[in-house]
Amino acid sequence: MGRDRYVDFLRAWAIGLVVLGHWLITGLERHADGSVGAPELLATVPWTQWLTLGFQVMPLFFLAGGYAAGGSWVRARDAGGTVGGWVGQRALRLLLPTAAYSGLVLLAVGVCGAVGVDRDTLALVGWAMAMQFWFLPVYLVITALTPVLYGLHLRWGLRVPVGMGLVGGSVGMLGVVGGDSSVTEVVGAVNYLLVWGVAYQLGFCWRDGLLSRGRVVPAGMAVGGVVVFAGLVGPGPFPVSLILVTGQELSNTDPPSAAMLAWAVAQVGVALLLAPGVRRLLAGVRVWAAVRAVGGGSMALYLWHMLPVLVVAAAFYLTGLAPQPGYGSLGWWVLRVPWLVVLGLVLAGVVWALRPLERALASLSVRLRPGSGVRWAWRMWAGLGLSVWALAYFAGHGFAYGGTFPVWPTVGLGAGTVLVALNRGAGGRGEGAPTSQRALEEAA
Questions:
Q1: How far is CA 382 from CA 386, 410, 413, in A?
Q2: What distance in Å separates the CA atoms of residue 217 and residue 207, rounded to the nearest whole number?
Q3: Residue 236 phi/psi, 5° resolution?
Q4: Of 424, 330, 300, which is closest to residue 371 (Cα–Cα)?
Q5: What are the pLDDT tens digits along the chain (444 aa)?
Q6: Do the Cβ atoms of 417 and 99 come closer than 8 Å?
Q7: How far apart are CA 81 and CA 70, in angstroms?
Q8: Of 351, 424, 398, which is closest to residue 92 (Cα–Cα)?
Q9: d(CA 304, CA 284)
Q10: What is the pTM of this model?
């Protein structure tokens, strides 16, 4: 009863829009030779790049993540927990379902490669099944830095995200003035932590009441963020799309740009302004039940939501049963409605079929979660590092880059997950030794 339902709503809302957005921009075409292609909608129909302003909601996920992680770390610290134990517990929640998903996909890649599936097709499918992975290594690194970031928050409050934003905005402009050099690329990668870290750090500030004393600060964030974003994408150098588009010289997401930072600040401001009204809606039993249903299955939805695309592609496009209006035409957009409905039904079936696996993973997470007495154990940190590297590789290359099986990233993710799971240590199980059904739900 002490949970802020609005935080859970933001998580569910973000996951729902990510799934819907990926499905909406994924269009399939059957070629004359019977093969199926997936033209890039944002590049083929440029006006659709404006749609990304509504569907790029990962700032909300990082905001909610910071809010929840700040409270979790404070409880663990006050109960005598250690940094290593807490980070291991949080990392394992993500790594177990991710490793299970990756293992099943990689098994399919290995089988398909062995039976001679076309390498280009295998590479495309492997990329589609890993397109959402960019979030995971970034979130794991920021989670590992939470004790340090929260310590900075306790000392300097709002000055921390402001400072991170100033540095992130400067780094984001480096791609404009520095050109496409290796140095620019390496330095720009820091913005994955700085830009998304600003939203995460604002979650600390929100939890501790620094952003909710009246409506002036949220309104200033919303208006200021929109104005800066408009300046950077109008007369400024950045594209409007908040998702990577092939062929564009600059990107707002790879790495996050100054324009993405401005939009993230604006989005956080709007979310805070809407909080009182949405909280009143969440007091209703049915609304809250729907939010809990989505939130409880959020990891499965996030990981598995591209599988229905492959199922529908095989059932309707490879067989030639799907209508083929002009790509991006009015008829094509009308068919987006049954497309989304069918994908939703298939995903519901996938999630239902995965329930035994989800329950098993939740139970395993509770049994394996590191104890609060685990300190700076080398196994946990080495495992976390290996996992982050492997997930970053999959995010950038997919599960079958070049149509081949990714041996070393597969070994890295498996070994990393095992190393994190082997650090049970002494001192209990962290936050209240959660062994009840509630713990199983939280672990999932």
A1: 6, 16, 11
A2: 15
A3: -75, 180
A4: 424
A5: 457 899 999 999 999 999 999 999 999 999 888 888 899 999 999 999 999 999 999 999 999 999 999 999 999 999 888 888 899 989 999 999 999 999 999 999 999 999 999 999 999 999 999 999 999 999 999 999 999 999 999 999 999 999 999 999 999 888 787 666 666 778 888 999 999 999 999 999 999 999 977 899 999 999 999 999 999 999 989 999 999 998 888 899 989 999 999 999 999 999 999 999 999 999 999 999 999 989 888 999 999 999 999 999 999 999 999 999 999 999 999 999 999 999 999 999 999 999 999 899 888 888 877 665 555 578 889 999 999 999 999 999 999 999 999 999 999 999 999 999 887 654 444 444 343 334 334 433
A6: yes
A7: 14
A8: 424
A9: 29
A10: 0.92
Measured distance between the N- and C-terminal CA atoms of the chain, rounded to whole angstroms = 19
Q: Report d(CA 394, CA 361) in Å as an integer.
A: 22
Question: 369 — phi, psi (to 5°)?
Answer: -55, 135
Q: Answer for the pair 362, 298: CB distance below 8 angstroms, yes or no.
A: no
Phi and psi for 253 in degrees, rounded to 5?
-125, -15
Query: CB of 425 within 8 A of CB of 374?
Result: yes
Cβ-defined contacts of 97-103 (< 8 Å, 24+): 97/299, 97/300, 97/303, 97/358, 97/361, 97/444, 98/136, 98/303, 98/391, 98/413, 99/413, 99/414, 99/417, 100/357, 100/361, 101/303, 101/304, 102/394, 102/399, 102/410, 102/413, 103/414
Within 10 Å of residue 82's Cβ, how many Cβ atoms?
22
For residue 37, give the H/E element and its range: strand 36-37
Tokens linked to 316: 């309707």
- Please give the DSSP secondary-structure letter assigned to residue 314: I
Tell me which residue of 322, 325, 302 sits closest to 314, measured CA to CA: 322
